[in-house]
Amino acid sequence: MSLHLTAEEEAMLGGQEGEGVALAMRVIVHSATISDAPRLVEITSAHVDSCLYHGQVSLDFAHRLVELGAKVRVPATLNVGSMDLIHPELIRTKDTAGRELMEAYVALGCTATFTCAPYQLPNRPGLGEHVAWAESNAIVFANSVLGARTDRYGDFLDICAAITGRAPYSGLQTDEARRGTVAFDCRPLGSFLQSELVYPLLGHHIGSVVGGEIPVLVGIPGDVSEDSLKAFGAAAASAGGVALFHAVGVTPEAPTEVGELPVRVVSRETLLAVRRSLSTFTSGELDAVSVGTPHASYAECVRLASLVDGLVLKVPFYLSTGRMTRARLEESGVLRVLESAGVTVIVDTCTYVTSILAPGWKNVMTNSGKWAHYAPGNINVSAVLGSLEECVASARVGRVVLDA
């Protein structure tokens, strides 16, 4: 299939809007050719993950775009970096490359949001809106919960989409690629579906089963919170590569019935087994607690504050969130409650992607399926997965406390 470009796109490719735009357009066109896209699609926003430092090539590409005068032409938010730019003293490294890279993307015109949860920001995309988002949990949330349309865009492709305002019309940008492929009957979980813990467990289980397919969930309560859907999507994306899910009666593109799709039944016993598999230790003393992966919403932070109000926690307790959420916490007084209890609020980054936890710490508790999945390999710790209440109860006594 040949790729059709509009006159405006041909002009960008030919350098009529500058060498920076031409470079970005070459990347987009080559990607479209590889994915057999018939055309490009105009996007309304981008979320850029390339600002997280992975080596010198990360800096080289960003600097080249800056040198060529490139600027984003659609609103572009930034994912987490490898630094907390507001609290640099919390990062246990002297390397300045991470800061330099984050600043380069701001120079390209991106907004300094530095959050993995751009859907918590104002002006999020709506149903059917074409965007180019990177970061796995942001992609699955945009596609599933918001009903916006984005394919998976990795480093460099994301910023090139932001600079050109274009993405290949392929993958999850298209109607045919968004249909569910396998159904999961969650109704046997019963009252367990009211527990926040079920959603990261369910996400990890389903992601492990389907890989990159599109699951359809049956039986999810209609009043399920966005934070629970966030936890589900993040775990499903990290365990398998899920970029879109449908929850019948909940998400905007969900079918009203599963039709002839193959159906798998999910039991409570299956999810408890997932919890055991994600926990590389289950008892004993704790070195730290880390919550907020993906970044905690304001509502989650308020809930944590209600749990720790008046307490003095015995182990270091880290809460990762976006800088805009932190500003709101400070304005409302919630931040004072958290910090008085000993909670350290991290912004711009996350504890599993950079050096924040002390090197000697080994046993860490989290409420995040994504954190439990990645942290043991990324930062060489043992993880135990629990609810937010279990995390607070454990931090209060300095050892693992689980309800079941």
Describe this structure in words.
With 404 residues, the protein is of the alpha/beta class. It has 3 domains: 7-171, Aconitase, domain 3 (2-Layer Sandwich), CATH 3.30.499; 179-276, no CATH class; 280-397, Aconitase, domain 3 (2-Layer Sandwich), CATH 3.30.499.10. It has 14 helices and 14 strands. It has helices at residues 7-13, 19-34, 56-67, 97-107, 136-146, 157-164, 198-210, 226-239, 268-278, 298-308, 323-332, 334-340, 369-379, 388-397; strands at 40-42, 46-48, 76-78, 132-133, 166-168, 182-185, 215-218, 246-247, 263-265, 288-296, 317-321, 343-346, 363-366, 382-385. The strands form 4 sheets. It has a 5-stranded parallel sheet with strand order 12-11-10-13-14, with helices on both faces. The chain has a 4-stranded parallel sheet with strand order 8-7-6-9, with no helix packed on it. Strands 3-2-4 form a 3-stranded parallel sheet. The termini are far apart.
Which helices and strands occur, and which strands form pairs?
Blueprint: H1 7-13, H2 19-34, E1 40-42, E2 46-48, H3 56-67, E3 76-78, H4 97-107, E4 132-133, H5 136-146, H6 157-164, E5 166-168, E6 182-185, H7 198-210, E7 215-218, H8 226-239, E8 246-247, E9 263-265, H9 268-278, E10 288-296, H10 298-308, E11 317-321, H11 323-332, H12 334-340, E12 343-346, E13 363-366, H13 369-379, E14 382-385, H14 388-397
Parallel strand pairs: 2-3, 2-4, 6-7, 6-9, 7-8, 10-11, 10-13, 11-12, 13-14
Antiparallel strand pairs: 1-5
Helix pairs in contact: 2-3, 2-6, 3-4, 5-8, 7-8, 7-9, 8-13, 10-12
